[in-house]
Fold each of these.
Amino acid sequence: MTDGITALKTALPATAWTQDADIIAPHLVEWRDKYQGETPLMLTPRSTAEVSEAVKICAAHGLKIVPQGGNTGLVGGQTPQGEVLLSLKKMTVIRDVDIINNAMIVEAGATLQSVHDAADAANTQFPLFLASQGSCTIGGNLSTNAGGNHVLKYGTTKDLVFGVEAVLASGEIYNGLTSLRKDNTGYDLSRLFLGAEGTLGIITAASLKLFPKAGYTQRVIAAVDDPAQALKLLETCRAGGRLSMFEVMPRIGLNAVVKNIDGQREPFDAPHPWYVVIDWDVETESEGAALAKTLLVKAFEKDFIRDAVIAQNETQAAQILSLRENMSSGQKFLGGSIKFDITVPLNTIPEFFKKADAAMEAQIPGCRPVGFGHFGDGNIHYNIAQPVGMNKQKFLDHWQAVSETVFDIVGEFGGSISAEHGIGIMKKEDLAKRADPVKLAMLKSIKQALDPENIMNPRVML
Ligand SMILES: Cc1cc2nc3c(=O)[nH]c(=O)nc-3n(C[C@H](O)[C@H](O)[C@H](O)COP(=O)(O)OP(=O)(O)OC[C@H]3O[C@@H](n4cnc5c(N)ncnc54)[C@H](O)[C@@H]3O)c2cc1C
């Protein structure tokens, strides 16, 4: 180990590594304070060549590597436990914005926000929207196959990329930076790195797909009785094919946000059991207002909506979205929280809520389900807040038992135990236990083929 660390420090420029504990410290804790890491060395390469050089030395000395982007991952995959930490934070160059091919080549450490800004400056858009976009990086988004708020229109990150450049476990560089829309020349190798959570190699750059900007986005917040009504509203809102976002929030979550987060306001005069934030991408403001009115009137007539506010301007639209984006922050004020990121077929969401809520009450009486999120994709962040007054740690000790219950119910509905956050450390055992054995064997074969010495993020996923 010491020889390898010395070799890295000798071969790489002084700008490409640090052992300064103060600089490294923020990279060893993560957003949920669930994982605390340690590392003998943090690498901060500035180029693909430096990443390649570093990986070759690690491979030669048997050093294991954990890649890290913006450190916003929610399953512990970016936190080293004694491995070398390789941060992409200095690889932030937007290499090219190519309007003719609708493609953009960016380095892996570029934040999602900086990619949005560069696309916006060229009057186009990269349509991946996450609350963490100011910090998360394209490399992290690709490695976790991030989802976000507009998946129902544009798909997940996998659908937004032509190909990647990646440094393999051998240190060789795979160049898949194409903008070809058709290329049937064997396996789609770039895809292997998408959702791989750093276990197959280090993504150093990506060729992203660009899309025309909507002329105008019409936003609405609606109030409904329950998830069954939300599902009916979703069907209505899809008419015309303009729907781009459909997010739900329960009253308990919205209440925690407006009570505890600065600048947040109740959207209606009276409280309602559930809220839905809806976007339609249209050409003009007047088209948006007319579409929203027509569809909401239909919903009122059929009696599955309690109230609605149509955003009249950008400020109001931003205030509405801010309620949804603060759902996670607001929940911190409810005490301990056991969190799930699950997906089920859309038609089963109401039944999922009924069954899971009842099971939670039976398992921990008084606990408070806070299921919110990307309803339009069937993706619910099904979080359970502790009962009022219960000791936080005592509550969190139920995490594994509660997981078994929730994942059993997800399985009954044909859902997935990880919709968009990945497996990481958190769900590794659940994957091993619940995945189809053929799928698990295939995952392991691919890992073995590309990283036979298991140096790439070795404790994650498999
Ligand atoms: C407030 C908040 C809101 C969020 N909302 C969403 C949401 O709506 N949808 C969603 O999908 N996620 C969401 N997330 C989770 C998180 O932002 C995403 O998973 C994001 O894609 C992680 O990017 P990152 O750069 O922070 O990656 P990190 O956290 O640094 O890393 C995540 C994983 O990717 C690997 N990795 C990182 N960079 C590379 C690379 N260049 N090459 C190889 N492997 C790499 C790491 O080893 C780790 O396994 C949210 C997180 C927060 C804190």
Amino acid sequence: MQLRLPVHLAEAYKSPSQRTRLLTETWAAENLYCPSCDADHLQACKQSTPVVDFFCAHCSSIFQLKSQSKPIGMRILDAAYQTMVEAIRANRVPNLWALQYDPSGWRVQNVLLIPSYAFSLSCIEQRKPLQRTARRAGWVGCNIVISSIPADARIPVVTEGKAANPSEVRRAYRRLVGLTRLDAEARGWTLDVLHAIRRLGKDLFSLQDVYALEEQLAALHPQNRHIRPKIRQQLQRLRDMGLVEFLGGGRYRVR
Ligand SMILES: [Zn+2]
């Protein structure tokens, strides 16, 4: 993977945002690969749509690229809130590449891949409507809250100027791919319980450890009053996906 942006292409552009867009999109088309199959390249969408920038010609996976020069923090500004909610409910969210470049050396510094199946309503935050003075007054955007996504689904592709091996990226992508078979609500539950277990920071944990997070989980799913049965159901699902091992007697191991 070549990490230098093709800066010679940008000379004709005066606007910094146009320049960044051209450079990072050209870079992505030349260097990013499909994490879902063995395709070495992605195709740029000719007709630019609001959220899809690239697709895989082999497996039809779709991708969005978000580029910025400041470090990838805990929130990424995304599309309109309602558009995103509808896309999540309909399983139409693309995989997201979050890219950070160094504007002084025009190099790609960090790339994080968030698989499409990792998006649930729990990681979407509604922003305040734009003020009346704004060009798009009243428009309501959303943030993707990276910290609400389990670490398993934040896949490092480039870290501090060093590219990961594509086989590792693909392995990480496939680990949770079973989530694609679930509808948005079920997937959200599984992701939230996985995230809760990861944050316990223990290899071995008990059902009581997870029950202790009941309130947090209830806050994410206010319409659901049967939190404990839901927790147990997610543990079974995570076991079936090979992420949690049942040791018996309400004890579990993270794999
Ligand atoms: Zn593919």
